[in-house]
Amino acid sequence: MGRSGASVLSTFTPDHVESTSDPVGGAVWDVVWLCTSSPALGTDDWLAPLCQDVGDATIVVLQPGLHDRARVCGLVGKARVVRGMVPFSAWQGPLPGGGGAPGLRWWRPPLAGVLLAGQRAARLTPILRRGGMPARVVSAGRVDAQLALVGGVIQPLVAGLEASGWSFDTLRQQGLGKVAQGAREAIAISAAVRGAVAPWWTGLLRGPGLALGTRVAQAVAPFDFERFLEVHFTKVGAQTRSALSALVEEADRRGLPRAGLASLRDGLGGSRPPTGTLLRPGRR
Which are the contacts of 109, defined by CB distance < 8 A and separation ≥ 6? Predict the structure, then answer.
């Protein structure tokens, strides 16, 4: 994949699928891409045995959690871990209320590509490029800064959107001041945890700017962006709550502001289990 523009309908046919972790140790593995949510990554019943069974394989961490990379590094060592970001949106179509043939749909925004950091990152870029996905190796600081920025805006925005019944119109009518406050706090906290520097313009994030950004995103995305966010972030609702809680805890630990984040977290209520299916060793 890799084409930008309109969303693309694809059929994915794996060469082989295992629904338990038993056969893992009997094979030779080059790369393992971790594609679960952050809360699923935080459990011990599968991750540690998997890391042990795949030998010297490179482990790619794509999760947005504050401590996800450190957790995997603690299991396999820093040298084997590659950090990355997912630069595209994917969903099982059609979206609610939409049309078209059923199947996996995905969209990569123009100029977007995979950023990878780590000692073995250069091994992976040719693989992704052969598949049509732009990819390049950058410093760990660059990936951390991007994660702090993107995650810092997305998590508060999604929390505000969910609390508004997954309606951008409702969210904009209520005002995005609390979301903007949470985003400023989240970026600062994430940057501090990852040893990055928050962009100088973080303090300029305000409700009207975010409101404009949501309109632009809806206009640019070649699919129902509002419904996509509802489907995807309902599926990973536990991850949103976990991320907000982790940010608040880190802020308390470091003496950083977090009132906006705490308000957004509390507005979502208690923990919600994901409604989608997590594909992971031993569970399918």
Answer: 4, 87, 88, 220
